[in-house]
Structures are given as structure tokens and as C-alpha cells.
Amino acid sequence: MTTTPEILFHPRVAHLLLVHKSPCQVGRLVKRLQHPSASIYIHVDGKAPIEPFRNAILETGVSNVEFITDRYCINWSAFSMVEATLSSLRHIATIEKYDFINLMSGEDYPLKSPLQFHTFLSNHRDKSFMEFQKPGDEWWEEAQIRFRRYYLNDFTLKGQFFLEKVVNKLTRPRKHPKSTVIVGKSQWFTLAVPHLMYILKNEKKLRYLKRFFKYSWAPDEFFFQTLLYNSPYREKIINDNLRYINWDNGKSSPKILTAEDLPVLKASGKFFARKFNTDIDRGVLDRLDEWILP
Predict the structure, then answer these.
(1) What is the predicted pLDDT for the residue at 294?
(2) Which residues contact 32 (CB under 8 A, 6 or more apart)?
(3) Residue 210 in contact with residue 138, Cβ under 8 Å?
(4) What is the distance of C-alpha 75 from the center of its chain?
(5) HSE of 117 in the Cβ direction (CA atoms, 13 Å)?
(6) Sign of torsion, CA 234 238 244 250?
């Protein structure tokens, strides 16, 4: 008779959720992330009222949840997303010692149980999981225009797009120092805390990349990967963000996953998936619960 080996290391995980809508769906996600070694932090977009989210969490009866008080108004594809993430990560880093930080959106959902996720991390305690492509890779070559040109996505100016055209016509393509390799793809990640602390304490590199990416398009898909890739921890990055995301629709946002995607989700081997929308298909989450929960 074989027995399951005892896990001697129980990683403490801080789930950081960036949310802006669907409070009840966020509450459901929070319930599914519950584990004795997990805490949950929620940043609600500054443009959204926070009370519906507070009420949704109260209804779950879950207690290990904290709302980030330093809220940012996040604009799509703008640097404000990086600012909100970075500020929230700093807050978490000052509160309590964790082993991993897991960045999620309110439209994510687990494909495996919390126990499976924590067990996996217990066997990869010195690794970080991020998705990235490098210069020469197909996605990177198509996406580099995002930081070669200037974008004003955090501004709501009349004639904003005309101004962008004028600025880019009068300026040369932006360049970064050859000593820094720009990498990136999906913004969602699971970071080992020592790697996060390196990022937060490297003020010189942070200042430089903030200046460089401030007027780029979707900098959240480059910022943290670039910081860690250009660090002594490069070899500790696993090029896998542990999430299933379907971009086959060819749009600027991934496909909304429904019950028809269940076979692919189950076969993916991933720990999480996105995007889900309970207004479109609530049943897919019910089916996932039946599959995941004992």
C-alpha cells in the first residue's frame, strides 16, 4: 500500500485580485480560493463603488480578505494598471511574510483545488511563474510597437488620438538601453516573494522602467516580466503563468469561456482560467465546481 508523502513545507499564498465589476462573481472566486495558508487582497478599480464588493464578500462568510485602500482608477491598456498592481504588491509585502503572490482578475476561476495549487507550489518554492516572449519571438515582434510609440491612454483629452499622431510623427521611435531586454506577454503571474522583494527594492530599475513604460500601450504585459528577466533570478522564472487563456478570437480581449470549453479546460493541466462572465454563462462555473470539489 502506497501513501502520499507528507508535505513538510506549506507555502503561504497571497492572492491579489484586481477587480472592477461583477461583485457576486468575485465573491464566488474568493470562496474557491480558500485554504488555511491563503489570504486574499482585493483592489477595486477606483471608478467602481466598493460597497457592492464588500457586501458580496460578507455574504460568503469568508474572513481572510482585505480590501486595498490605496485605490487607482485603472484605464484599459494604460500605465495605471501597473501602478495599481505595484502599489498593491507593496502593501502586501509590508503586512506579513508570504511565500508566493498570485495575481488574478475578478474574471478568473480555478481549474484545480486550492490544495492542488498549494501542493504544486510546495514543490517549486524558489520559482516564479510568468508568461513571456523575447525579441525574435512572433508575439514580441508584433507587440513591440506598443513601446516604440507614445500612447496617452491614461489621459482623457479632447483630440487625444490626434495628439498621439502628432507626437509620434515629430519624435523618433523610442529605444531602450541595450543592457535591458524587454520581454512580456500575459500580465497575470505567480511570484515567489524573494523575487518580488528584489523587484520592489530595486528602485533604480523601477524608476527607469516607470519612465519608459508610462506612455506605452498595455505596459502591464511587459513591466514585471522585464524587471525579473533582467535580474539575478532569470533562471528561476518558469515561462508558464499556470493559466488557460484563449486568444483564438483575434480580438484585444480573450474569449469568454463557456460550457462548450469544458473539455479543453479539463485537459489543459492549468490551475486557473480566464475569462468567465456569469451574465453570459453561469453554468460553466457550476460544472467546474462539480469537477474540482470533493
Answers:
(1) 63
(2) 109, 110, 114, 289, 292
(3) no
(4) 15
(5) 29
(6) positive
* Closest of 53, 293, 104 to residue 285, by C-alpha: 293
Q: Name the 3-class secondary structure at 13.
A: strand
Q: Are 285 and 28 contacting, i.e. CB atoms less than 8 angstroms apart?
A: yes
Where do the domains of the chain lie, and which CATH numbers do they carry?
13-292 (3.90.550)
Walk across the sheet containing 243-245 and list its strands.
109-110, 272-274, 243-245
Amino acid at 115: L
Q: What backbone torsions phi and psi does residue 75 show, to the nearest 5 degrees?
A: -105, 140
Q: What is the CA 64 to chain-centroid distance, rounded?
A: 20
pLDDT in tens, 227-258: 999 999 999 999 999 999 999 877 778 999 99
pTM above 0.85, yes or no: yes
190 backbone dihedrals φ, ψ, rounded to 5°? -125, 110
8 Å CB contact between 44 and 152: no
Cα–Cα nearest to 83, from 29, 39, 45: 45
pLDDT in tens, 109-120: 999 999 999 999
Cα 149 from Cα 216, distance rounded (Å): 7
With pLDDT > 70 as the criterion, what percentage of the chain qualifies?
97
Which pLDDT score is estimated for 166?
86
DSSP 86-129: HHHHHHHHHH---SEEEEEETT-EESS-HHHHHHHHHT-TT-EE
For the record, the C-alpha cell of 169 comes out as: 510623427
Which of 125, 130, 91, 95 lies closest to 11 in space, CA to CA? 125
